[in-house]
Every structure is written in structure tokens, then in C-alpha cells.
Design a protein that fits this description.
Elements lengths: L1 H52 L1 H6 L1 H13 L22 H6 L1 H25 L2 E3 H10 L10 H11 L7 E5 L2 E5 L7 H13 L1 E2 L1 H8 L3 H14 L3 E3 L6 E3 L1 H21 L1
Antiparallel strand pairs: 1-3, 2-3, 4-6, 5-6
């Protein structure tokens, strides 16, 4: 009987110790959360000071603007995300971090840029199937802007695309090979399709034989991937070659731009 009593007492002590550990752990978590919240508050205050000091550079210099945005991201702040937690300074509880720190100008800049992105993607979709290189997209966007408008960098285009994500409109950034593209159709590229586009970047085109030789695919698999991309408008077909060649529109545009730049350089030198 005495042994049983000792066992029950030990059980009670163990249960009490577990409760104490749980309480101590909860206290530590609360303390850590408060310390982290304090640190973030300090970072945010310093971010505000930096933004107010360099507001002109952030508005006018795309490289500086990109660095500021990366600095925000490093401490977990999305500059374009809406915030209704009236913290921080200045005025409005709502609006994005851009709007709260710099006023509406930078905030509006990105949303106006997003509108132009939608317009350009819609206009070029019949030619590229809804997949356009970020550089080409930026150049087309800049072409349609008023003279004297702020300069636009590739990073600005990527952030403008990010503002469209909450709309569920299918706009996203994908990488094909080592280049970023904006996809404006709500469809995921399959692994095979991505491999074909990657291969087409190297030569400008892909063929069934090339895919079979380099990727070890069957002819049926290669033709299926090529024909799917052709149907989506992401590749163009040249039937005049001995074997049908499926060309990348982005590559052809790059070649045209390079040729145009060479002509301008030659004319200036001559």
C-alpha cells in the first residue's frame, strides 16, 4: 500500500512539473514575441525616417527605388501591401506602405504601371500566347507613357505585376531558362513545356528531333509539347525548313532589336 502512495505522489509531482514547464514556456514565447514586436517597431521607425529623407530619390530613381523595396522585404514589410493597422505615423491607417511613407505618388505610380502592363499583355497576347519577357514588356510600357514620366526599371514591372495578384487575374512571373517572363493567362506551364521554351531560347527555335536527341524524349512526347505551345501562341511555326521549326517570338524580337541597335551604331560611326 505504501508503494502505491509513493507512486501517486510522484505522479502528482510530475504533473505539477509539466504544468510549470508549460507555463514557463508560454512566458518565454510571450516575452520573445514582445521583443520581436519592439524590434520591428524600431525598424519601421527607421524605415520611415529613411523614406522621408530620401523620398525624392525613391520617386525618381528606379535603382534606388528597387533597393528601398528590397530593404523593406528584408524586414518582412511588403511596400505594396495594404495596411489597415493604424500604426506608424502619418495619417491614414489604410493604404500601402508606399502611400503611408511617401504619399500617394509612388503608390499611384505602381498601380498606373499595372494598368499599362494589363494593356500591353492584352495587346500582345495573340502574338505570344500570354507569355512576354519582362524586358520587352517594360520597353512596350515605356513607349506608351507620357514624356517626362518617371523612369521604369524591370524591378518596377515585376512589382506592378505583383499588385495584380489579389485580383486573381492569372498574372504571374515565371522563369524560363535564366529569363523572367510575365504570364497573363491563368494556366500553368507543364514541365515539358518549360523544357521546350528553355531549349528554344538557346537557338531561337526547337524541333522534335532536337528535343529527342537532347532530352531523350520520344517523338510523340516532343510533338505533343511543341504543338501545345503552338496552339497557345507561345511558339511560331516555320514549315519551310526541312523539319518543322518552332520559333520563340521573344528570341525573334531580341534579334530584331540587336539588329536595329547595330544599324544605329553603324550609322553614328559612319
Amino acid at each position: 500500500m505504501s508503494r502505491k502512495g509513493v507512486g501517486l505522489a510522484a505522479f502528482d509531482r510530475s504533473r505539477l512539473t509539466s504544468a510549470q514547464f508549460a507555463s514557463h514556456g508560454s512566458t518565454l514565447r510571450t516575452s520573445d514575441a514582445r521583443a520581436l514586436e519592439t524590434q520591428l517597431s524600431v525598424f519601421r521607425s527607421l524605415l520611415q525616417q529613411f523614406a522621408h529623407t530620401h523620398a525624392k530619390d525613391i520617386r525618381s530613381d528606379p535603382a534606388f527605388r528597387a533597393q528601398f523595396a528590397r530593404m523593406c522585404t528584408a524586414i518582412g514589410v511588403d511596400p505594396l501591401a495594404s495596411s489597415s493597422s493604424g500604426g506608424g505615423g502619418g495619417g491614414g491607417g489604410g493604404g500601402s506602405i508606399w502611400a503611408q511613407l511617401l504619399g500617394r505618388s509612388v503608390n499611384d505610380f505602381y498601380f498606373e504601371l499595372a494598368v499599362r502592363v494589363v494593356e500591353v499583355c492584352g495587346a500582345t497576347r495573340p502574338d505570344n500566347g500570354g507569355l512576354i519577357g519582362v524586358r520587352e514588356l517594360r520597353e512596350r510600357v515605356v513607349r506608351g507613357r507620357m514624356e517626362g514620366a518617371p523612369a521604369v526599371a524591370d524591378d518596377d514591372v515585376l512589382r506592378a505585376v505583383a499588385t495584380l495578384r489579389p485580383l486573381g487575374s492569372g498574372y504571374s512571373v515565371v522563369r524560363v531558362g535564366n529569363r523572367p517572363y510575365v504570364r497573363s493567362v491563368p494556366k500553368e506551364l507543364s514541365t515539358d513545356q518549360s523544357a521546350v521554351l528553355d531549349a528554344a531560347q538557346l537557338l531561337g527555335y526547337a524541333t522534335a528531333s532536337l528535343l529527342m536527341a537532347n532530352l531523350g524524349w520520344s517523338r510523340a512526347r516532343a510533338r505533343t509539347a511543341l504543338d501545345d505551345l503552338l496552339a497557345e501562341g507561345m511558339l511560331w511555326l516555320d514549315r519551310q525548313a526541312p523539319e518543322w521549326e518552332y520559333w520563340s517570338p521573344a528570341f525573334m524580337l531580341d534579334v530584331d532589336e540587336a539588329a536595329g541597335a547595330a544599324e544605329v551604331t553603324e550609322a553614328a560611326g559612319g
